[in-house]
Amino acid sequence: MTLYGENRPPADDDRPTVQVKAVSWPVEEPERPTPVDPPQGSAKRSRRVRILLATGVATAVLASVGVVAAWTYAGDVPRGTTVLGTELGGRSRADAARELQAQLDRRAAELAAPIEVRVGERTAQINPAEVGLTVDVDATVAAAAAAQAHAVDRLVGSREIEPVVSVDVPKLEAELQKLVGKQGRKMTMPAITFSGTTPKARHPKPSLALDTEHSAQVVKEGWLSGQPVTVPLVENHPVTSADEVDRLVEELAKPAVAAPVKLNTDRGTVTIPPQAIAKSLQFKADKAGKLTPSVDAKKLRSALGDRLDKVEVAPKNATMTISGGKPKVVDGRAGKQVDIGKLRDDLLAVLPRTDDRTISADLKPVTPKVTAEKISGLGIKEKVSSFTTYFTGGLSSPRSQNIVTIAKHVDGTVVLPGDTFSLNGHTGERGYAQGYRDAPVILDGKLVPGVGGGTSQFTTTLFNATYYAGLEDVEHKPHSYYFSRYPAVIESTIFWPNLDFKFRNNTEYGVLIDTSYTANSITVSIWSTKIWDSVKTEYGPRRNITSPKTVYLEPGPSCIPANGSQGFTQDAFRVIKKDGKVVKREKFTWTYDAEPRFICAKEPA
Asked: Would you state the pLDDT for residue 554?
């Protein structure tokens, strides 16, 4: 290495100027002469020269690196950086974005060309614009600028940055699904169900479908390359395998229903039969196909039916009664029920066992839904409506007894604001066990003896009371034949369990149903806070009138004669007024069949 100094300063000056002329590395070390001790002053100058020369070299190298780095980092984007073959290096982000956009504009026709896409055995062309395929210019320039972080290792050279491509994934998915068609298949989820007390297994099968994320990436890459794209269909297997399903059947489902479970409480013992276990034990698969066993608490309670009655105390809602012409609160009581939430976990734990199938359950207090405090603040203060219908035969007849029985069951019921009252839901089945008797009912177009006959008269009375209170009609069905004891159209039948009567308390106040009866009448009154000035019915004329025919029936105890009645169609309008103005006008329409004249005798020859 040969160094040349220019204008060397005095020996005591620490600021030498050094210029690098040439650098060469000896291949072989030259023969060294025998050293001769220099004069003292000369040694100091030699050491100083070496130090100055080393410092100069370092400074020169750093200076040259700085020059190259400055050149490399000029602008926001490092020099040598290209996108889609366009040089963006040395530019500000704004300039780089403009240059890239110009390149995209030049390639607009190419980038707008349809892409050939293949899925399985089917091929189609997809319009890039329809699936939102675009180059995100700002994101691409940002990625190019971020390349500075790595440019220190490559001060000279070039770097190609892949453009950032956006796509409307839902739209692309929709187009690809058209291609999939019947080639794909949904995942068959694993399942275990019961037929009676016999477990049935359903083995899982994998789905064959698109992988949304991978499909989008493949299409984005193919769009820029201009090459046909193949989007694969991917199998996705459920987490729970067929072997695991069989294991659950053998280790849980079968032993679960092999024997009853004994339930101990402080108030006695209840047996949970295999049938109740089968109805409440469920194996549910999540979206990934993982099968998890559990006990459905509601289904377990329902399956046990009245078995829990001997250990539970049902809560009793507070009610209201009319005393001295005013509503009075009758307090309810708290109940005690089996803690089903804890029971289901304990039950699930013993079901795999073949012996020691005994669990204990706590009885927790249950507050009634309607308390005295709650019912007192419902605004039940005045009679809003009342309706009466009449019957014959006195209170001793089976039909009259049925009317009185259902009236007593409904009397004092409070319907909370927003709640829907169901007559079938409130009374349950109306059979012999509930105190109902045989009386005439309409079945298959004729009067026949049936348990609970006469309850339709109470239903009509209740319907009219709620109708004239302005409450919302949810469900009712008039009789198929017209009976003069009821108002036309505005009446309702009922039959367990298919025909029901329902109304909704569409006010902000509570509604009390008050029932009363005499030897020949039934009355239903609605108590609440009066909202409307009046509720009346306006009838349209009867039309499409039909005449009855005569039908001869086999005489006997089950034959009930009838005089017959005309059939007709009629409209009824509920007109509701407030502040002297009509605020609601609701139309009710019904068509009555002509009731035949039934004669209990053989038809004359």
From this structure: 82
